[in-house]
User: Fold this.
Amino acid sequence: MVDNKKDVIEQLKNITKNELKSGVSNPNEGAEGRLVSNKTGEVIVNNYDFDKIGDLEKQFVENVIEFMSSKNDVDMDTLILEMKHRYKIDKIPMKKIEDSLWYQFTKNEKIGANISGFRQTLEDGKPIRIPHVHFSSDLDYLDDMINRIIEKVRQLKIDT
Assistant:
């Protein structure tokens, strides 16, 4: 651990003074007040808000309940396949957080992390959803966490 935080902060200020912000946009300055990806600038698709359900959604749920009730003798796997076919649903996979560099560096940290939505893109020609992760912690804890990450980076053996 670095003993003198003020010295480290001053060094980082000097190192980063001419550095451009990474990514394409500030997610807090979204399109029409909506959250955007700080990597691509695309609007983040929010997780569903059941408080905003309308008449069409209610009618759809009633239709699903009626369909399921009429198939009460059918096993669950078959019912799911029938519903996917009926409603033309293809599940697009969500990129695994556990496979990310961010997760590897922070998995043992005590930060609150939530998936607040996603953006959809293509990876190897196939659609995939990229989670939009919010995390929170006290600022002094985040400073300590960065010091731990710096130590991890110093221990890495990287061929350049």
Observations:
- The chain has a mean pLDDT of 83.
- The chain has five helices and three strands.
